[in-house]
Amino acid sequence: MNLQSLVEKATQTEHSVVAVAAAEDKEVLEAVGMAADKNMAEFILFGDKEKIEAIIEESVPGIKSHDAVKIKHAASPQKAAELAVKAVRENEADALMKGNVPTAVILKAVLNKEWGLRTGNVLSHVAAFEIPDFKQLVFVTDAAMNITPDLNQKAQIVENAVRTAAAIGVTTPKVAPLAAVETVNPAMQATLDAAALTAMNNRGQIRGCIIDGPLALDNAISHKAAEHKGIQSEVAGQADILLVPNIETGNALYKSLIYFAKAKVGAVIAGAKAPIVLTSRADSAESKLYSLALAICSASK
């Protein structure tokens, strides 16, 4: 599977609706236009109606009278975030998308105790990468939400990633908890957590996947590197999901794949009552489209 086939898969899902918070953003509206043209979903655009219409008129005129796109005025980004979250909460929409609104504002709405999208689980960032010369998508988690997750949080981050991968057809994904080495070292917390996650998986505490670690990045994705180290594992050399030990590692790996490896990416926030497309303003419209496709496929499951 690649990201284009993920887009095609999203177009085949049953009726989906995406609520966009503060939709007055050119790249967001371009992604909405591409998705609407492909009949991936319907969209409710919350935000400054006049600004949204002006951007559509200038950059995406094709969605001006599109039946799949509706605009609902909101007086401020905070109000747009509230209305979009409530639309998901009240089952008017299946997924949430961040527009021209600070991440802190939309997350505050998502975590609202009265009308937010809390489930009691950890929220985590799951990115699906299409990397040149790799045959399958590689998932990286968590590169954006949890700073230094403990063992319990890492277990939930894995579960979020496994559910996301399963939603697009990756059955029993192989999970590699990354560390600097592939042996357990009491002085390196990442190796202790990796070993514990492996044991939890073997005992059925984490289901739906195969976990083996600690593994260094080369051993997780390269058969040759794993063989050279004499590592025999169901995961080594063929990991579907790379679990990073902290946000610095995740952020560097994420951006390295994009800028050095020229990878394409789609990403969602998982763990809430519905998937959340929380892209950066620097992300292209194409990347936002892939993220939408991942969210729509996740929501359908």
**What's the tally of helices?**
11
Question: Which percent band covers the strand fraction?
Answer: 15-25%
Largest sheet: 6 strands, mixed
> Would you count the extended β strands for me?
11
Q: What brief labels describe this structure?
A:
about 300 residues, alpha/beta, six-stranded mixed sheet, five-stranded parallel sheet, 11 strands, elongated, Phosphate butyryltransferase, transferase, Phos_Acetyltrans/Butyryltrans, phosphate butyryltransferase activity
Describe the model:
The protein has 301 residues and is α/β, with parallel strands linked by helices. Helices cover 41% and strands 16% of the residues. It contains eleven helices and eleven strands. The protein has helices at residues 3-11, 26-37, 49-59, 77-89, 103-110, 151-167, 189-202, 217-221, 223-228, 247-259, 285-300, and strands at 17-21, 42-47, 69-73, 95-98, 124-130, 138-141, 174-177, 210-211, 241-243, 264-270, 276-277. The protein has a six-stranded mixed beta sheet. The protein has a five-stranded parallel beta sheet with strand order 3-2-1-4-11, with helices on both faces. Helix 2 links the parallel strand 1 and strand 2. It starts with a helix and ends with a helix. The model has no long low-confidence stretch (mean pLDDT 94).
SSE inventory with pairings:
Layout: H1 3-11, E1 17-21, H2 26-37, E2 42-47, H3 49-59, E3 69-73, H4 77-89, E4 95-98, H5 103-110, E5 124-130, E6 138-141, H6 151-167, E7 174-177, H7 189-202, E8 210-211, H8 217-221, H9 223-228, E9 241-243, H10 247-259, E10 264-270, E11 276-277, H11 285-300
